Amino acid sequence: MYNEMEIRFLSLSGNEGFARAVASAFASQMNPSIEALSDIRTAVSEAVTNAIIHGYEQRDDRLVCMQMTIDNDLLTVTVRDDGCGIDDIELARKPFYTSKPELERSGMGFSVMEAFMDTVSIVSEPHKGTTITMQKRIRHGT
Fold this sequence. Notes:
The protein is α+β, with helices and mostly antiparallel strands. It has a single domain (2-137), classed as 2-Layer Sandwich (Heat Shock Protein 90). Helices cover 34% and strands 30% of the residues. It contains four helices and five strands; from the N terminus they run βααββααββ. The chain has helices spanning 15-27, 34-55, 89-93, 109-116; strands at residues 2-10, 63-71, 74-81, 119-125, 129-137. Strands 1-2-3-5-4 form a five-stranded antiparallel beta sheet, covered by helices on one side.
């Protein structure tokens, strides 16, 4: 089976829950376990929150793009922003690192994504934006 979708939504913090619900509904076509569905929702939540908080620095007038594909048992989720980008991706991936300590951020966003998805790829360019691509294999009922 192959399917794909793309949505764009404003960088409002409330749209993080919307993105999570859309991701869950789309992935449910694969008949994943509740645990796998929860993993996907959590990873999407972190990626979208990063776009809003870090990419757009909480400006609520910018667009976040989320694309998803199903290709047999492989789910791919891409979250993209055209925000400020990441200067040092390796530093940003380190647990507990945050560029926004004043917002009491835990610095665990990328670690959480990596814990719940099979692969996480980050492409970013300062002042041009960030694209996070996450993949998870879903076997029937798992």
